[in-house]
Design a protein that fits this description.
- It is a single chain.
- The protein contains no helices and 21 strands.
- The relative contact order is 0.23.
- It is 0% helix and 42% strand.
- The strands form four sheets. The protein has a seven-stranded mixed beta sheet, with no helix packed on it. Strands 3, 5, 6, 8, 11 and 13 form a six-stranded antiparallel beta sheet that branches.
Length: 353
């Protein structure tokens, strides 16, 4: 007797006998999500390069400046530009010099952006230079970057909460400082929620003592949204081993060459899945490595559904079905003999690839 409620494609049916427990396991493998394009939200040659006008506002940036020190944009050299004709920098005299003069204060520029539908990832890059002070982890005079909800408006008297801080390449313990001779490139990735609006904030901080010119300068700020990068192949060779009355092990083999990890999802109804494990990849650039995950404290007679996805960036949505494996074993306590009326639940292995 076969389970007619399950649709199959070229199934391979095998029959197993001699098990003393019954667990119904549905294992699903997945293709990853595929990219659907990208959107430039801040252009390094336009508003991110301060080339759209003579003020920060004309480039879509808001400034929160102290009484004397504050952010401006101009063609002043130094600090000069990394490209184009303008940059943004902190000045103590409204742009006449690249300098700061106040202690115990902060100055900021910020710009809001909305992640388009289907594009929850933002790749951010910017050119920076800054003097300041405080080596290593010393948080004295420096530049920091934040991405916060639009409800967060920076002030000149308090730092933006470090909950919202983002850190890119070239930072020292999360701070940009002590490198003012030429422009440096920093890149970072932010993953948010598609459709939601965020606030990108650049903050220059001067601590309670000393002035260590020059302050921060910025140019060629770029923010490009996109979909998650997909793994280039799904896992293969799904199997179940070490089946015991209340435990078993699920297995799969790496078949992609750009994954960072594998997401394992489990469900009791085949509809509502929960992420139960993220297994790090040990061979990102290669294929053929086997992975396994023990499942314990399982209930005999229960139905379990699984999904496994190779991922490069953890996604909130589940990829489409790639393959299925069904294993049906006899109920606990009945040995080799099927339970009357439950023959369809016994001794059947069905695969679809």
């Amino acid at each position: 007797m076969r389970n007619k409620s399950t649709k199959t494609i070229t199934p391979v049916n095998k029959f197993f006998y001699g098990f003393i427990n019954q667990v119904f396991i549905l294992l699903l493998g997945f293709l990853p999500l595929f990219s659907q394009g990208q959107t430039t939200l801040i252009s390094p040659s336009g508003d991110g390069g301060f080339e759209n006008g003579a003020t920060l506002a004309s480039n879509g940036w808001m400034a929160v400046n102290a009484a004397t020190d504050g952010w401006v944009t101009s063609s002043l050299n130094p600090p000069g530009t990394s490209a184009g004709t303008r940059s943004a920098f902190v000045s103590a005299d409204n742009g006449s010099t690249w300098s700061y003069s106040q202690v115990s204060t902060l100055t900021h520029i910020y710009k809001d952006f909305t992640l388009p539908a289907g594009e929850p990832v933002a790749d951010i890059a910017f050119k920076w230079k800054a003097g300041g002070e405080g080596g290593g982890t010393s948080d004295w005079d420096n530049l920091k970057v934040f991405i916060a909800p639009t409800s967060v408006t920076p002030t000149t008297t308090a730092q933006v909460s470090n909950v919202y801080q983002v850190v890119g390449t070239g930072a020292t313990s999360g701070m940009y400082k002590l490198n003012s001779a030429s422009y440096n490139t920093s890149t970072l990735k932010f993953t948010g929620v598609a459709g939601q609006t965020y606030r990108l904030i650049f903050s220059w901080k001067s601590d309670i003592t000393d002035i260590a010119n020059p302050p921060a300068a910025l140019d060629e700020i770029s923010l490009v949204s996109r979909a998650e990068i997909a793994a280039n192949a799904p896992p293969i060779d799904f199997s179940i081993t070490s089946s015991l009355p209340t435990s078993f092990t699920i297995n799969w083999v790496d078949n992609s060459t750009n994954e960072s990890s594998f997401n394992v999802y489990r469900s009791f109804d085949g509809v509502n899945y929960s992420l139960i494990n993220n297994t790090a990849s040990t061979t990102t650039a290669g294929t053929g490595t086997g992975y396994s995950l023990a499942q314990t404290a399982m209930l005999p007679g229960e139905t379990y559904y699984y999904r496994i996805a190779a991922v490069t960036e953890l996604a909130a949505t589940l990829p489409p079905v790639r393959a299925a494996l069904y294993i049906l074993l006899p109920l606990a306590g009945y040995g080799r003999k099927p339970v009357p009326g439950r023959e369809a639940l016994c001794q059947l292995l069905r695969m679809m690839w």
